[in-house]
């Protein structure tokens, strides 16, 4: 029996919006019915490119479109609170890009709003929806490496990014941490939960955003995570989990892996690989599928990307920024 189609609205027209929309168009149970931008020209060009029937030059019109079941918010994270909040206020379910918001206060406001309205809300942490990451998580939870001792992960781009780029702009939540560091931090949270202690050091740009940040997260169990992010130095973009009885290594592109290797004491290494056709950006398809599954079930959040987890990650990111001295305009 054919599943009921879920009708999507796309808010923003940048690169990630285009990638997500392209994935939606390949899914028979998804329909993209509207797109919005702050610019009529941008919205219409995006609509023409993807064959979307309605294009809006303002966010409110999309939020109020009764034919939209769920809105994908793909703006820079500095606008997530305003954009997602507008959609929730209008009664729309929301999938909001990561970092979820600029800070934990804004994240808590969105979660409170969604819960008060009984609406679905999820952070677009596509890594958590990837089948291979889910397999890795299950192995760790089942004790495949014993008690987890350390987690290591990094995500750095070589740049250089000019001062006018959004990654260097404090008003847009620029810097390595919220754009790239959210992946290593979220990976550590997935394995170990919220840390009890956060230590961090960073090199800041002239504009006051972090060019690169190193983090040491600690847990009461004695486990720790060593994490790095950068917008001025390319890193391996790998991750590893070491336990009392073994280790898991994920090669380049740890948040959209095509394979990982389990090393266990006294055994041959065991490689786990992604299904055929599960390329790097297919995590977006898995993410969209999870949202649609939850909407059909009447759920208001996803157990794969729980709101409590998104709030915990934002608290950790806040703690890192407090320690390295990054504050964005308008923050209280």
Walk me through this protein's architecture.
The chain is α/β, with parallel strands linked by helices and 332 residues long. Helices cover 35% and strands 24% of the residues. A hairpin with an 8-residue loop joins strand 12 and strand 13. The mean pLDDT is 95.
Average pLDDT score = 95
Note poorly predicted spans.
none
Oligomeric organization of the protein chains: single chain
- Tally of helical runs: 10
Which of globular, elongated, flat, extended, rod-shaped describes the shape? Answer: globular
Biggest sheet character = 8 strands, mixed
Name the helix and strand elements from N-terminus to C-terminus, one letter apiece. Answer: EHEHEHEHEHEHHEHEEEEEEEHH
Strand order of the largest sheet: 8-9-10-7-11-12-13-14
């Amino acid at each position: 029996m054919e599943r009921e189609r879920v009708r999507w609205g796309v808010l923003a027209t940048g690169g990630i919006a285009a990638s997500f929309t392209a994935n939606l168009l390949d899914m028979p149970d998804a329909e993209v019915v509207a797109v919005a931008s702050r610019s009529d020209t941008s919205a219409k060009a995006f609509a023409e490119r993807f064959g979307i029937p309605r294009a809006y030059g303002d966010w409110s019109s999309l939020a109020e479109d009764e034919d939209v079941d769920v809105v994908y918010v793909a703006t820079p994270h500095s606008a997530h609170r305003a954009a997602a909040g507008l959609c929730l206020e209008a009664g729309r379910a929301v999938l909001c890009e990561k970092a979820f918001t600029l800070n934990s206060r804004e994240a808590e406001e969105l979660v409170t709003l969604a819960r008060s309205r009984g609406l679905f809300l999820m952070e677009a942490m596509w890594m958590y929806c990837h089948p291979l990451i889910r397999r890795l998580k299950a192995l760790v939870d089942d004790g495949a490496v014993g008690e987890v001792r350390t987690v290591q992960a990094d995500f750095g781009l070589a740049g250089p990014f000019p001062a006018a780029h959004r990654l260097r702009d404090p008003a847009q939540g620029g810097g390595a941490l919220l754009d790239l560091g959210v992946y290593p931090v979220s990976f550590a949270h997935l394995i170990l939960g919220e840390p009890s202690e956060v230590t961090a050091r960073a090199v800041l740009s002239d504009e006051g955003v972090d060019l690169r940040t190193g983090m040491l997260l600690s847990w009461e169990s004695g486990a720790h995570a060593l994490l790095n992010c950068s917008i001025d130095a390319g890193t391996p973009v790998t991750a590893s989990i070491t336990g009392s009885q073994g280790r898991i290594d994920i090669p380049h592109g740890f948040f959209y892996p095509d394979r990982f290797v389990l090393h266990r004491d006294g055994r041959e290494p065991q490689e786990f690989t992604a299904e055929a056709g599960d390329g790097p950006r297919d995590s977006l398809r898995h993410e969209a599928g999870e949202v649609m599954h939850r909407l059909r079930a009447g759920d208001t959040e996803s157990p794969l990307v729980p709101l409590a987890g998104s709030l915990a990650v934002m608290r950790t990111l806040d703690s890192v920024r407090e320690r390295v001295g990054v504050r964005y305009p308008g923050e209280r």
